[in-house]
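Researcher: Here's my situation. A collaborator sent me these components and asked whether they could plausibly form a single complex. I don't have experimental data yet, so a predicted model of the whole assembly would be a useful starting point for our discussion.
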Amino acid sequence: MKRNACGQFDSVHTRRDLLRASSAGFGLLALQGLLGDERNTAQAATAGNSSLADPLAVRAPHFAPRAKRVIFLFMHGGPSQVDTFDYKPLLTRDHGKPLPFEKPRVVSSDTGALLASPWKFQQHGQSGAWVSELFPSIASRVDDICFLHGMHGSNSRHGGALLELHTGSDTFVRPSMGSWIGYGLGTENANLPAFITVCPTLTHGGVNNFSSAFLPAVYHGTPLGNAGTPSKQAKIPFIDPRSAAAQQRAELDLLREINTEQLATTGPDLALEGRIQAFELAYRMQTAAPEMQDVNDETASTQRLYGLDDPRTQNFGRQCLMARRFAERGVRFVQVSHSYKWDQHGGLRKDHSNNAAEVDRPIAGLLTDLKARGLLKDTLVIWGGEFGRTPTAQGDDGRDHNPHGYTMWLAGGGVKAGFRFGATDDYGYYSVQDKVHLHDLHATILHLLGMDHTRLTYRHAGRNFRLTDVHGEVAHSIIA
Amino acid sequence: MQPRPRSCLPIFGLLILLFAVAGSLRAQEPGAKPALEEEPNATAEQITFFEREVRPLLAAKCFKCHGDAKQQGSLRLDSRAAILRGGDLGPAAEPGDPAASRLIEVVEYRGDLRMPPAGKLSDREVAALTRWVKDGMAWPAGDATPGAPATNGAAKSADEKPPRPIPWSFQPVTDPPAPQTADDNWSQGPLDRFVLAKLAAAGLKPAPAAEKRVLLRRAKFDLLGIPPTPAEIDAFLADESPDAFARVIDQFLAMPEYGQRWGRHWLDVARYADSNGQDENLAYINAFRYRDYVVDAFNQDKPYDQFVREQIAGDLLPDNPPGGSSSNDPFARIVATGFLTLGPKMLAEDDPMKMEMDIVDEQVDAIGGAFLGLTLGCARCHDHKFDPVSTADYYAVAGILKSTRTMDNFKVVAQWHERQLGTAAEVAERADHAARVAAKKAELNERTERATGAVVSAARARLADYLLAGTELLESPALVSLVKSDTGPIAENLPADTILREAENFDRGNVLADTTNYGPGIGVILNRGELPNFVEYDLQIAKAGAYQLELRYAAQDPRPIEVLIDGKLRKANAAEGATGSWFADAQRWSPEGVFDLPAGKVVLRLQRTSGPIPHFDRLALVPRAAEATNTPRLTRTADELAEERRLISSYITAWAGYLETAQKDPQSVWQPWFAYRRGESLSPEKFTGLAAEMATRLLSAGSPAESTMRDAADIAARYRDQIDAADKRVRETTDKTALPPVDIALGKVVDATEVPFRKTPKLEEHFSKEDREAIALDKSQLANLEKSGPAALPQAMAVEDGKGVDLKIHIRGSHLTLGETSPRGFPKMLAGNSPEASPPSFSENSSGRLELANWIADAKNPLTSRVMVNRLWRWHFGAGLVRSTDNFGNLGDRASHPELLDWLATRFVESGWSVKAMHRLIMLSSTYQMSTTYNAVAAEADPDNRLLWRMNRRRLEAEAVRDSLLFVGGDLDTSLGGTLLKNKPREYVTSTASVNATSYAVNRRSIYLPVVRSALYEAFQAFDFAEPTTLKGDRESTTIAAQALFMMNSDVMNEQSARLAARLIADQPENSAARVQDLYRKALGRAPSTADNARALGFIDRYTADLQTTAGSAAQPPEVQSQHATLAWQALCRVLLSSNEFLYVE
């Protein structure tokens, strides 16, 4: 099989194949409720197949997976690698000197001389990973973490870089990785969508970053509020648990009666059947989702673990705690955004400190909690921004965008714990060793979930598309 | 990086060059095979070096991607011949010349291309490769690494690639006769016979005809996107004439709602939206003109070929277009080219070349997909894998768009081009007026500049005074916040009479008080849109005395404001710091000064004339009783110093800042001055560099003895004299390097571009009276001139022709690696079918768009008519004859009825490309008029209904769902045209605060709701609205829970069901059964059955009873009972409007 998105593929995962492969009976439909493309489902039904393709039904991956679900902690704006996890003693030594090699051909704006990190670094844990004093709590979890110090991307602007990180393309609208994963694996919870994004940004591409694009709408990321909403108030669009439940139930009962009666006159039509079930699912989701968002039934110590006791950490802490609750209940891909705060062209000292203080305890708490509950082993946690920052100074207290070399980290989900992979140059500008491009990261994430990125394809506008386009190499060295 | 010139040479040429070199060296006959596989003169030592150092390295680091299994960039590195032959970028190495060898360049990580990508080779490895290339690239004879291709020296060239199969759709359109069908009393015309013949061949029969009621509902949804009214149904059912349906079709086609419905279909293909999406999401406030053009084109039945021509090259069409134009809008053809402009764009892209090519690419793809059903974009990086479209073809078309002006610039944030819609005279009049305004502005600027120069010169003459005042200001103790130095609670024990005020509780102002977006309990003031911003507070001062003013605010960028007390400017650059962000957590208390205030009412005014204010949260006035704090009082503010000494306040501040910076430089010429201020001696030996030289000059100037310098004024005067003298020398000397460095440094002090006396626009108040008056006069003249100008013309997103240029092929799609020039033209395989004997030539004076438009719109183009009739079929039947409506290439689907498709395409052209004629042709067929009746045998044989054994049941599209709800609710506004976008031109439609301000709570038809890319209306998103970044001729129809939630809880549903219920009750105040009757007829177009009726009435009774039980008390007042009844009827309406029967068209 050729491994080229513009090339000829085995279309293992076209919708039609899924339909043919599906063995879920009508009972499962009644339980799982959701339907996909009517033309395809109609085809399946009229073909005399009593089975029904539920596009969210759990599907077997290509090979044994290491991770079953993903929690992506997105630091919107671009945290600085050289101030957080990528320790560069030479940067400190040569503070104020010009960068001793060429800057990239394309830069966002001019930067000056090298700027030493204002924060001290120390080694932590058995693994001896270097972490700056910005993240004292995460530092205590380094032995669970796999650092990717050689990350690089292609776009130096927020919009392009966000799109590339989320969809693999920095130019065109493509399905988000959460959508691809839902498409590949389905969901384990019939009452919730496969892909939930908590407080996503509406800027820098907005919805495009969690959109299913040309994949069926059922794989679209379901937003909970947006970056402008405090996480406590975030909710799914059109969910209204305040509606008088008894009356609404009565309406739905009548609706089901009317629809069922009509169905008896039309002959088999899975789209019509699917709509009957969709209302039942919506009704259940209306109860289930707010309940799953409500963290009041968590113990006080758990709430503290996530920093819900501190006004600085409570907003992001609640997002992380919700993420755990969703993951625990089988949501495939949960994204949590610390929205557009990390873009320190100026005010680096103050703002990186504040930002880190908002997320440090919640993230460490999430790792601790996942581990304690035995979830970390098959939950892949991803941390990172859309790019890193320059080791050179913008103004006297800022750094510019830098997609050429930066750090992201993974934890759980079958990656090596307490491991460091890749490196930037001596000053932290370019990725130089064991480089991991965003395409490679995507390939690796899919691999950990048991999917071959070259085989997870979808036919659209006459060609097969992939999350990784024509690129992507799995970083096998980081897999435990 | 400029691509290396070598890489621009055609590969073929290089090989010839190589052959020539090899030939001459080895005296071979021309044409003989050069022995590339071995290095002729390799020594045993070199071979050993290769085997030990080089081959293992190549094998370990390179072969994976450039060997047997893969040839990234068409390059192999597993034989000497392969390396010399190279890949997409030309030869990989030049034996003997590492510096000219790309192999070496890439492993050294010098340019943009860096190999191996996983990490740089060690220095030792790089050195080994370099040495090997330098020594001539020894490689053992006849020993290509296993798996290498036969190295016979034959070059791989583009010509040798296997030809792509020609897709069926590239064949000329034919006019096949309709098959004869036996025993045919079903067919109404040839269309049906094509269908029936296929069905018969499969042993299938068409479904029975649909009932009239069903047919009418289908036809009205199809053509207008809204359900029939009971009156329309009654009339149609009563009309038994044979042409009843034909007349209904004509009636619908004549309604303006037709263009709204079918225009929206086209907008899916045109990837229409009202913003660019992506990063920096700006409002396309003029995109609506294109949308209105499309609606108008469908309503007018504009010939499709003309419609195509106008969208690609409307601005270039001759005045009397073939086919004629009945448009009332003289600018329609310019507006039409909005098709090319309104695609999605990444307006923030640091690489302008990439941005330009991305935009061109988007246009090529849009044109190919919309009109030709071709995925031309695939050929951007490599020859199309499946269709006979090469990269040369791609760049031939791309060159046409590159020669078209779509954008004004490619900066961050880039600006797309818009055209004024006016006659030449109107445009010229405005240009003329703009020129006069510009001239007046220049005059004003010049006068201001001169006046500023005078102020600066006067200030410079008082350098010594500024030095003193600046120093005093610098030495003044810094203010410390008495309220709180950082975040956190307000300090306890603030003195009595302290005034604390929330900023949003202002008495007067033109700012926005925002109490919702910054967190619980936090209210701030911010810019509401009017500049300058100002805000005033009436404050009651208990006791006269000194008060410290403090402001709490957040600002991501510095936004200095003015503080006025009782109308008098007291501080010019208050709250000027950046605190980090606009968010609440960045708010800081900032002490701004100490002011003597009288007892009684005082008006505090904060204002900013040059832009919006920072986000203020609170303000405080704290009495400065000495015992209350140990913070010393600020001696004097710059304003006070300025007033006392008749100086300019901003220059005093500038001097203080300048000196503060100078303090940090131990060699600064100002170090002797600082030493003096500290009471130290000025003896030169204690200083270094310029400072020492300066001390010497100070001491030697005038009086030699240090003791004579009695006071600061004396030293300041000496500085002034030294600076004046140095400045004179600097100005008079051409060779500045000859001057002592101290002169250069001193000269800079009075340079108008340097800090202390920099020209700033804030100097206006210090202008002379004459200057002020003259400037005021200029300004009023300018204002009058601007006011008197002609009203601005409407603008349209539209293109213009630029200079014709041909593009070079971008190898692998990268603008950094260019190949051969591909002259502008059309895809060659298709152009072969062009009616023109020879392709048109493309001049430098035009883009070639007109030629492209004419070529596409030509009746002989095999794709254009086929693609469009198939689209029309798709929008009538829910599936195309070719199911992949947007791909007619080899990877697209084959037509289910190829002869029918061609027959239709031929009729289409024959009809003068009339879309309305096609509607009639299709809808007046038995095929269209079939019912959706299920047939188990047919379903088994043809589950996809490709053979059309019945009509497809279709769910309403997003717009039809919403429009129908509003229509049945009695609230749909079907007026034509205009925009609902409230944004200013190029304003952000989604903000960084993640707010989409677009309102969808209107009752216009859905086609007029703004389509905001990256933030689509969520109701549309739920119902499979076409993602507006790529064309979509074939929308999905999915069933997801979000649709159910929309039906259960959305405002639209609640409002419309309430409206409908109110109408039912008003029309039938007494009779419940009659209400049910009305409801069914309005919503579903049929009368309720007895069972329907009983069920509905039973529901109303139960629902009402339930509400009454919930309400508690047994005896409800009549108005509550009536309210309960209304709610029950609303619930019933909601159920019916949510039902499958409502949402599906049979």
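Model: Some features of this prediction you could bring to your collaborator: The radius of gyration of chain B is 40 Å. Residues 1-35, 146-160, 321-326, 627-632 of chain B have pLDDT under 50 and may be disordered.
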